[in-house]
Amino acid sequence: MYHRTQTRPVKVGDIQIGGNDQVVIQSMTMSKTHDVKATVEEINRLTEAGCQIVRVACPDMRAAEAIPLIKKEITVPLVADIHFDYRLALKAIEGGIDKIRINPGNIGRREKVEQVVKAAKERGIPMRIGVNAGSLEKRILEKYGYPTAEGMVESALYHIGILEDLDFHDIIVSLKASDVHLATEAYKKAAEQIQYPLHLGITESGTLFSGTVKSAAGMGAILSHGIGSTMRISLSADPVEEVKVARELLKSFGLAANAATLISCPTCGRIEIDLIKIANEVEEYISQIKAPIKVSVLGCAVNGPGEAKEADIGIAGARGEGLLFRHGEIIRKVPEETMVDELKKEIDKLAEEYRLK
Ligand code: SF4
């Protein structure tokens, strides 16, 4: 699949955003940032789930002062989400933050913006400009009448202009909207006009189920145009779920390196095994596998192996047993009670083969 790589590479800690075909997964903590213990715990859970960069809210000085303490305990780059207050940005930068999310046009007087830019430059810290359809500048809303993709890009260009005037170019841009069409249009227009990497998001998308569907629809449309260097799924749910959804979405587009994928049949009256339970168990198991393996779980042997030819390894239910197959060829029969364990062993073997390649 084509993926837009001609963007400026921007480093966030040791992770590069843009300038390649990777899409970096981000999420945001729910804890109060000044509660260092809770925030570190949450960040470490997110990291374990595959989150590559974590953002924390930085609404006050207590939060900004917690940053160096949090940084000591985590292994992923940390981003501070700041609105308006340049002193919080300076404190976060001083505390070793890896990126700040702030709109320079909202900081206020020019000297305040200059101070933030100078501090960020000195430490090599990038900034994300976050345009949100729900909070566009008044003059842009007056010009277009309501939030439009053109207005969102105009807002992004306005904030970018402020940073470029100060010779600052380590910029990442997001253009979030909760309306899928609006977000898609905004990102497409931005990709034509903005050389900086784009951070994807469908904001306020909803709960775990509805938000996952909406995010997949919106971000899927944007990713299918080859757009996006980093992303955050926004759900009213445990942020670990955001990471899981992001990983799965990237897998669907072949954009997740070293991740295993599950193919499972939709079930029908021919089913011979407890497929739903098995599929869930196998899905959980492969979430930890770091190899591009396709694993298939099928309810019966009638169409099973044929339907899963593209799978590397799989199992198809038969009466009282399972047929284990590799690349569509049956390799052996296993009793029903042990077939999931046998499949897991084969998955591990394949993962090891990939590792040694
Ligand atoms: Fe039905 Fe078998 Fe196909 Fe599953 S694999 S949908 S059980 S025919």
Automatic annotation (TrEMBL):
Membrane spanning residue stretches: none
Enzyme class: oxidoreductase
GO biological process: isopentenyl diphosphate biosynthetic process, methylerythritol 4-phosphate pathway; terpenoid biosynthetic process
Domain IspG C-terminal, chain residue ranges per copy: 262-349
Cofactors demanded by this protein: [4Fe-4S] cluster
Residues the record lists as binding [4Fe-4S] cluster: C265, C268, C300, E307
Keyword line: 4Fe-4S, Iron, Iron-sulfur, Isoprene biosynthesis, Metal-binding, Oxidoreductase
Pathway stated in the Swiss-Prot or TrEMBL entry: Isoprenoid biosynthesis; isopentenyl diphosphate biosynthesis via DXP pathway; isopentenyl diphosphate from 1-deoxy-D-xylulose 5-phosphate: step 5/6
Known catalytic reactions: (2E)-4-hydroxy-3-methylbut-2-enyl diphosphate + oxidized [flavodoxin] + H2O + 2 H(+) = 2-C-methyl-D-erythritol 2,4-cyclic diphosphate + reduced [flavodoxin]
Entry's family note: Belongs to the IspG family.
Job of this protein: Converts 2C-methyl-D-erythritol 2,4-cyclodiphosphate (ME-2,4cPP) into 1-hydroxy-2-methyl-2-(E)-butenyl 4-diphosphate.
Protein name per its UniProtKB record: 4-hydroxy-3-methylbut-2-en-1-yl diphosphate synthase (flavodoxin)
Species: Marininema mesophilum
Gene name of the record: ispG
